[in-house]
Amino acid sequence: MKKHYVRQCRVETPLGPMLAVRTAQGLSGLWFDGQRHHPGEIDAPTGDDPLFEQLRQALAAYFEGRPVPTLPLDPQGTEFQREVWRALLKIAPGEVDSYGCIAARLGRPNAARALGAAVGRNPISILIPCHRVLGSTGEMTGYAGGIERKKALLDLEAH
User: Fold this and answer.
1) Cβ–Cβ under 8 Å, residues 58 and 71
2) Confidence category of residue 139, pLDDT binned at 50, 70, 90
3) Which residues pair with 20 in a beta bridge?
4) Angstrom distances, CA of residue 127 to CA of 12, 62, 65, 136
5) Cα end-to-end span (Å), the chain
6) Could you list the active site residues?
7) Contact 66, 56 (CB under 8 A)
């Protein structure tokens, strides 16, 4: 998947630095340093890019509690993963959902574990809000960026 990246940059956030990558179609990755499933070194040029400037503005809006503008997203994954990531985009800020409920809405009520794996592989942190997914009893489950970040993101959205 990395071969499709055309540009990369580093983005500073209140929760730590992130790596952003894009394809010709849109933002394809946004990972915290040290995040599980971080792609590691990317073979794509660094530098200014209008999409990365829009990303910085979107993240600033997010962390300031303002509405986040829509960016062109191009997450790379299997069809099932992309279906799950599209479902995550429907969870509004300040709301949460469960793996089981999302699986049922997708017509796959027995696929909560597979759905959880797809959520964990979300390549675009924050903007595809996998942090808004909790366990079936509302427990704070794993987050590739770390439970502390997940809690901080949910706390930010609750205010």
Assistant:
1) yes
2) confident
3) 9, 30
4) 15, 9, 13, 23
5) 37
6) 130
7) no
